Amino acid sequence: xxxxxLAFLHRHKDQIIKKWxxxxxxxxxxxxxxxxxxxxxxxxxxxxxxxxxxxDEHHYYDLNQVFDYMVDTAHEHYIGIRxxxxxxxxxxxxxxxVIKKSDTPLKDYLHRRLSTFNAELxxxxxxxxxxxxxxxxxxxxxxxxxxxxxxLPSGAVSRHFTVVSKEKLREFVERTFDTxxxxxxxxxxxxxPSRKVEGQMVTALQDYLDETVDFFEPRGFAISDVxxxxxxxxxxxxxxxxxxxxxxxxxxxRALWVIHAAVRDLALAFSEAYNRRLMTNFYEEVSVMLHRIxxxxxxxxxxxxxxxxxxxxxxxxxxxxVTVEEMQVFERLQELRxxxxxxxxxALDVVEKALHSEDxxxxxxxxxxxxxxxxxxxxxxxxxxxxxxxxxRALSEKLNAATIGTITEFLQxxxxxxxxxxxxxxxxxxxxxxxxxxxxxxxxPIRLDELVRTAFHxxxxxxxxxxxxxxxxxxxxxxxxxxxxxxxxxxxxFVQVINNAIKYTPExxxxxxxxxxxxxxxxxxxxDTGIGIPKGEEAGVFELCVRCSNAQExxxxxxxxxxxxxxxxxxxxxxxxxxxxxxxxxxxxxxxxLPIYRGEEEANNNNNxxx
Length: 611
What we know:
Blueprint: H1 3-11, H2 13-28, H3 41-57, H4 61-73, H5 81-101, H6 107-139, H7 141-151, H8 166-184, E1 191-193, E2 201-203, H9 204-216, H10 223-244, H11 249-308, E3 310-312, E4 315-317, H12 324-355, H13 360-387, H14 389-398, H15 401-437, E5 444-447, H16 448-458, H17 460-465, E6 469-475, E7 482-485, H18 487-503, E8 510-517, E9 521-528, H19 549-554, H20 562-572, E10 576-580, E11 588-595, H21 600-610
C-alpha cells in the first residue's frame, strides 16, 4: 500500500477509532467495553496499528495474537466468537464511512483497496478458526455423508426427501458438505467454472446455489425443508468434535462455533437464493399473462379507432359507425322515399283506371293532376338528398357488406379479448388470493390408484354425453399405489388431462385411461382419438399462455395456463409430464410419471444398503 494511502489512515486515526468504537457498541455488542481487562481504548489503538501493518506488509503475527487472546477469553465476559469477529471487521466499516465522507482524491482507490483487504481478512481468520474443524470433518467425510443421507428423509428433517432418488440425495449432501468446508476456511467466494453456463466463471457458493435451487425449487420443496437439511450437518458434526476435543474445552468451543457459523451462513445464502428464484418465477409468470392480455387488447384498440374514427390535429379519419346526425338524415330520406312511393302508387292507380275510360279528355285531366301532385314530393326528396349529399355518400360507404364484415370481426375480437382477459385476470387474482390465504402444503402418502379412479368416474357423464368409448385400465402389481405429495394439488393434473381428452375428442371417439407401475415409478396415461397436436407444436403444449392452433379452432375458450400449471405441479412432486401425438387429427397421449412412495423405513434401508 502506498505511503500516501497509509498517511490518509494515520491522518484520520482518531476519527476512525471513534467510528470503530461506536460501530462495536451499536452493531456488535455493547458489553465489549464494560470489562477493562478485556478490551480497552489502548487495544483499539494497537489493533489499528496491527491492521495497518497487515494492509502494508501482509504481516498478521501481532494481530493474530490479540485476536486469539480475545477469542479465548471472550466467553468469560459472555461475549461470543461471532462478536469478536465483528469487533475485528468493524474496522473496515468505520474506515469506509470515514473515506466516504472525505474529499480525498484517493477515495475510490481506497474504497477498492479496503474492499479487497476485507475479503482477504475474512479468509485469513475464517481459515485460522476453521481449518482444524475442516480437516477433522474431512477425515470423517464418508461417515458424515452416510449418516446425513440416511437421516434426511425422516420426520426429524423432512419427509419430503423420500421422493428424491438415492443418487440425487447423495449428490446433494456431497455438494453441501464440500461447500460448507469452503465456508470454514473462507474460500466460498473463490472463482470456479460454472456448471450451469459453459465457459462462465462464478463463485463456488454461487455455483452451489445455482445447482441446488435448480433442483429443489421446481420440486416444491419448502425453504425450511432444505434449510433443515443443510443445518443437519451441525448435528452430525457435534459428536465428532466432542470426541476430538473432549479434554480441550476452548478448542471444542471454537470448533463448534465455526461449524455453526458456516452452516448458518450456507443455509441463509440458500434461503435468499431460493426466495429470489420464487419471486423471479412468479413475476415472470405474471409478466407472460399480462403480455397475453396486452396482445389481446392491442388489436381491439386498433379496431376501435377504425370503427369509431380518429382525429389527429386537423386530420380526421371517418369511422365506420353511423352517427346520430347521419341516422336522422337517413330516416328523413326514408320517410321522403316512402311518401314518393305512396304518391307514385296512387298515380299509377289513377292512370290505370283512366286507361280504361272512354273519355280521353277526362284521362288527360286526371294524369295532369297526378303529375302535379307528384312533382312537389320528388322535388322535396331531390332537394333534401342534394342538401345532405356528403352525409349520403358517407352512408353509402358505411352501409355495405365490407363495413359490416369489419365491424363483425371487431365485435368477435372484442368478445375474445374480453373472455381471455377475464380468465387471465381471474387467474392472477386467484394467485394473489392464494399467496395471501395459502395454507402450508401438507405432504403425506396418497393412494394414487384411488385418486385416478375418482378422477375417472367424475368425468363419466361428460364422456357419455358425447357417446365416447371410455375405459379405465389398472396394471398395478400390489393393487394399492402410493405416492408422496400434496393431495389438493396433485389431483388437479389427473383430472384436467382426462377432461381435456374428452373435451377435444369428437362425438363417438375413444378415451382410454391407464395406470401402470414398475419397480420404482407409476405411470398414468390418457390416450384419445381426438384432434391431436399439429407437427412442430408439441413443445408449446406446456408453455404458459400457449395453445395449439387446432385447439383454439376446436374450442375458442381457454387461457393456455392449465397444462402449464399441471406440469409444474407434477415437477414439484419429483415427477415428469409429457405428450405424444402422431399429428393433427390423429389423437394424443398424455403421460404423468411419479416415484412410488415405499415409506421412510424402506428409504432408510435403501440408504443403509448403499452406505
